[in-house]
Write a structure and sequence with these properties.
Elements (H helix, E strand, L loop, with lengths): L19 E6 L2 E6 L4 H7 L23 E4 L4 E4 L10 E3 L3 H16 L8 H5 L6 H9 L3 H9 L5 H7 L3 H5 L11 H14 L15 E5 L3 H12 L3 E6 L7 H4 L8 H13 L3 E4 L9 H7 L2 E4 L35 E3 L10 H19 L20 H8 L14 H5 L14 H8 L24 E3 L9 H9 L6 E3 L6 E3 L6 H4 L4 H7 L5 E3 L3
Helix pairs in contact: 4-5, 4-8, 5-8, 6-8, 9-13, 17-19
């Protein structure tokens, strides 16, 4: 790693006497006891320094090198967790040199990281719905929770469950084993259960913002945008040229494939949130873009087709596909005007249209709140790529056998077929958090052949995935301190080193008392709870 020196504490003379010393961190002075580490001194100033291998109360292992800081007097990068503060030190914790070194360290750690942050099914879903979570909730008969998970990303799940071409199922790892999990049917099942209730799920609505949004088009993009904008407290007025809302869902899909009562029920849910529908209103004839811009705080163009001349002299940039937008933010060349769905490029995938609507709502909400328009956030996503036949078999261990045909009665059993390919710590993994923050690359130091994916389940609480382990040694120290009979230890040496139970004992013998503590301390998803 460039610019990096690994420095360990110097223990000599009176280094650890109880006198105090003064140092500067980020140009702020702090007094600490002699022998205090730079990391501890920074904490006194409420300055956060990232760490992966450090845990208060345990030996400083100094392995991850994410905690490096810049000591200005010597112009060195030093590990803050194990470098003692010295009188007169001047430290910078976040400059270009530090960030570059931390990125180097993260790139190295990621180069041998074997694990997916997100399951392939979620990654393939244009709406990025948390499919594994939905499946687990259905498996546990938590149908009310399942519909909340679904509608966090998909506004019309009962509709999509019937007509979606299921790109998620095409990406399902189980497809290589026997047949993919029937994700769309499970989504349809949860949505139908919800609609059959006397009071279907209603999301929380924020306080009224006083802002008004005009949405042109009552198809899937416009309906989806309204569904999420209404939750943000904005009033939505939907204009559409057809007699009834639904767009291509109503006028382009046969009744036998999508019964209209199902569509009506889900549109009714959006209407119940406060959407105002104005049908029989044609853009360029009954309503004009310039008039809408003057009357409303933002305009969303979700029209299915664009008539020639409608946007002439509008300021919008057009191509042979449709309205030109920033694909990240859905903004057009005209401030306050956003576009998506078939207005920017023809597609027959309703899930894509719904995903556009949700993305548009995110950017419109930022615009209405005078915030920078960045679009929906994107998280760092570690990817293993294609799995071998043996690796697929490893995933299959905790799932049930194939179900040839699914119906509502079999939904629980079908959900049990899921391999749970997503990471058990997808939201709390600090390696992922810092990879995002420092724009780390998993490909920069990529070896020729990646390590084999492993998932070890030898404990009633713990899943251990060695490929995600960064060898921080925290679990080894925890089991030793707790007096575990076997505990955990480093097995092998050098690059082949890994964490394991001594004498080839199962994990259940190594973690008799400390499973919860080890899972909590693990900075990655190497150790996580079994998701039952």
């Amino acid at each position: 790693m460039r610019h990096m020196q690994k420095c360990m504490p110097q223990r000599s003379g009176n280094s650890y006497m109880n006198n105090s010393i003064k140092i500067k961190i980020n140009n702020r002075e702090v007094t600490v006891s002699a022998g205090s580490m730079i990391l501890e001194a920074a904490a006194k100033l409420n300055i956060n320094i990232p760490t992966l291998c450090y845990l208060n109360g345990y030996e400083r292992f100094t392995s991850c090198m994410i905690c490096v800081v810049h000591e200005l007097n010597s112009d060195r990068l030093v590990p803050s967790c194990s470098m003692p503060a010295a009188e007169g030190m001047e430290i910078e914790t976040d400059n270009e040199k530090v960030r570059e070194a931390r990125k180097d360290a993260l790139d190295f750690l990621l180069s041998e990281h074997v694990g997916d942050c997100e399951a392939p099914c979620r990654r393939a879903c244009p709406a990025n719905m948390d499919i594994p979570l939905m499946i687990r909730q259905i498996k546990e008969k938590r149908f009310a929770d399942a519909i909340v998970t679904i509608k966090r990303d998909i506004a019309l799940p009962a509709v999509l469950g019937r007509i979606c071409p299921a790109p998620c199922e095409k990406a399902c790892n189980r497809k290589s084993y026997d047949s993919p999990v029937s994700i769309c049917y499970l989504k349809k099942f949860a949505a139908d259960v919800d609609l059959d209730l006397g009071s279907p799920y209603r999301p929380e609505i924020k306080n009224k913002s006083g802002k008004k949004v005009a949405i042109i088009g009552a198809g899937p993009t416009g309906l989806s945008a309204a569904y999420y904008l209404l939750q943000d407290g904005h009033d939505c007025f939907i204009f559409d040229q057809n007699p009834q809302p639904g767009g291509m869902l109503r006028y382009g899909v046969p009744d036998e494939k999508l019964p209209k009562p199902v569509l009506d029920s889900e549109i009714h849910q959006i209407s119940g949130l406060g959407a105002h529908f104005h049908q029989g209103q044609t853009l360029g004839k009954d309503i004009r873009l310039d008039e809408l811009k003057n009357k409303y705080d933002a305009v969303v163009l979700a029209v299915g087709t664009i008539e020639p001349g409608v946007f002439e002299n509008s300021g919008l940039e057009l191509s042979n596909r449709g309205i030109v937008i920033n694909k990240r933010t859905f903004t057009t060349a005209v401030p306050g005007v956003f576009a998506g769905g078939n207005a920017v490029g023809e597609s027959k995938m309703a899930i894509r249209a719904l995903a556009h609507g949700k993305g548009i709502s995110y950017s419109v909400n930022q615009f209405l709140n005078n915030a920078p328009i960045t679009g929906p956030p994107r998280r760092f996503d570690s990817r293993m790529g294609k799995l071998s036949e043996d690796e697929i078999k490893t995933l299959s261990v905790s799932s049930v056998s194939s179900v040839a045909k699914i119906n509502f009665i079999e939904a629980i059993k079908e959900s049990s077929r899921c391999f749970n390919c997503d990471c058990g710590k997808a939201t709390s993994c600090r390696l992922r958090q810092y990879a995002q923050e420092y724009h780390a690359s998993q490909q920069r130091f990529k070896p020729g052949d990646r390590r084999k994916f492993e998932r070890i389940i030898q404990h009633d609480q713990v899943i251990y995935e060695p490929g995600k382990c960064i060898k921080c040694g925290l679990c080894v120290q925890i089991t030793k301190k707790a007096g575990e009979k076997f505990g955990l230890a480093f097995v092998n040496r050098g690059f082949a080193a890994r964490i394991g139970t001594p004498f080839k004992e199962p994990l259940s013998q190594g973690l008799k008392k400390t499973a919860e503590e080890c899972i909590k301390a693990c900075p990655t998803g190497a150790m996580s709870y079994i998701r039952k």
